[in-house]
What we know:
The chain is an all-alpha fold. It contains 32 helices and four strands.
Amino acid sequence: xxxxxxxxxxxxxVLTATLGAAALLKNSLYCYVQHIEDSGNPERxxxxxxxxxRYTTMSEAVGERVLDLHNRVLSLYIxxxxxxxxxxxxxxxxxxxxxxxxxxWWLYMNGSRRDLWDTVPPRMAQRIFAGMLNETLTILTxxxxxxxxxxxxxxxxxxxxxxxxxxxxxxxxxxxANGSDLAGLDVKHQTRDVRDxxxxxxxxxxxxVYRGADLHFIHQEFKEKDPPTVPRECPFPWFTFVxxxxxxxxxxxxxxxxxxxxxKTAFGLELIVLLAQPQPNWALIVKVLMMRDCHLxxxxxxxxxxxxxxxxxxxxxxxxxxxxHDRQKKCSGFLCTADGFCRFKGDVNPGEEFARVAGAxxxxxxxxxxxxxxxxxxxxxxxxxxxxxxxxxxxxQVWCDRRPPWLAxxxxxxxxILQFIPPILVNAVQSGASMYQTMALCLSCISRSLDCVPRCxxxxxxxxEGTLPSHINPVGGSVLLQMLVTVTYEEIQxxxxxxxxxxxxxxxxxxxxxxxxxxKSSRPKSKQVRIVALGQTTTSxxxxxxxxxxxxxxxxxxxxxxxxxxxxxxxxxxxxxxxxERAKRKVVLSxxxxxxxxxxxxxxxxxxxxPGSNAERASxxxxxxxxxxxxxxxxxxxRVIYEHLALHSEWIxxxxxxxxxxxxxxxxxxxxxxxxxxxxxxxxxDQFLRGEWPLPWSTLVAVAKAWSGLEGVRVHINxxxxxxxxxxxxxxxxxxxxxxxxxxSNSEGLL
Length: 751
């Protein structure tokens, strides 16, 4: 009913909000359809599925109507320009600014994009915005390419076309899927809207060149009778023309794909598209991080480790970057995932934001990067950071939970593999085992779990061990064992906290008191017990422990304390050596499967040798992204990295050399209305009339010729003022006469 009411009154804001609500209901019904399908109730399944199909149809219909209303507003009210400056009249007024309708169109498109991104599902929002851009460009292209101007209004036409091309360069990334779409490469895989926008902008570019260049530039280029070649695989010239900071050359026929582009151009295209999307594109994030030998990851990691806070109290070993400080609770939001992100209000201290992204980058690089890439990024960043980074890997620091974020990112790779160890060790102590036997059992459990430990974790430990300073002594001389013991210690601490809660609940129920929890008393103090060892009496918790009269939480804390000194006094030297040898053992493939008969399949790579920079291919990026998103730390890490890229995009662009420094520091996604009205990105309107845009006319004419057939050139040349007024000017201009004869149409020749 609400949708019909909005349709009857052509109420665009209400219709847009209705579209968002319908899409939300459609998605909810989809979840119910999946649930009922699994329950095996065919009657209810058919009812819910029918309702889902109706909402899907309604969403599509309302989306088409929203697009139609936007196009009506743009074409009838904004681009109509009934009171604007004429570009084809006999006026002799010298204009100092462009046509107001172009400025109004730019402002409306920006505002509509924000509204669509906030209220409409991402895919639907992109489709609507692409339709708006495509439809309005049709009007603008026809208007400016078919207009006959005078000497006075030609400058206004050229200024308007340059403004339009600069605006489209800012709007187009929102409907592109990757940098290849933005540059116009790989046309076969572009969507229809992206392909049409490029074609219309290319036509405007040719109109700009052929109407604006001096006559002798055109005559010099076309006096040769060579047929113009039309390359289709290099970047579109209109985009290279309005993006001089991105491209080194205006035209480079050798570029056939993004692999042929320079580093700054390839990164710039992908980042611009990534940050213009209505929602994060995880595969594109992974592609940007890993492409070109992890160039961007290295740059971000070096800066993050140098500027991260020294307070390492926040970062647990689980790699959940938003769930610190008890934020991992479900809020009142619909379909809340309880991952802490909904309660996250941003970092007050910039050092904490840098620390969080350092841990997230470390997790991603260690998960999908090769050993060589991890060494050139993480290890290199640690070595040049100027910090005492390796102190946390000493065997005396197993107990310390004030770990740096990069170490927390690596520890998160282990996941929940060692969660089974705490109850086994506590049961052993309760059964009468000594602390020495319990530690031996712990090493045995870790050894038996090595096959389950991710290979990327083992590779990361081996790379860090090779970079470790000589004065740092990890447990058993192995960083791998040091980290496994640290994770085990962390799991024991968590298990002890859970047992404390259970013991409190039992005690409260027994006493008939309400159960209250105090944050300060959640950890019981370690009990001091008398032990007898080698004829000496001491007070400690690390050599032996009488578990017959102690609670499970107290036993767990005593075991954790003993774990911190597992490498002292050569008590478990043999067990530690065997564990390290097993961890370093290479896997040898048997030849009994006949792989020698199939050489195309016989080349096998060990995990850690395959470079993650292969993510520059879309298929590899999708596979690596799926690998990361399968774990909660991976999902948190990608979200942290995306927020960091959006927050520091201007710094990244300047470091890549694709954007000049600006006097006004305004984030691109938070520009005020007045600034947006008079600026295209970071540049003011009317660059042509200001004389601030570089115009190498000879190069522009050569590029336009390469992309134009003879008919495409004739359309614009014949509308030039000097060509149309050739008869009144007489036959004194030889160049003009030659051009007119060259571009005379067949019908004119017959007449």
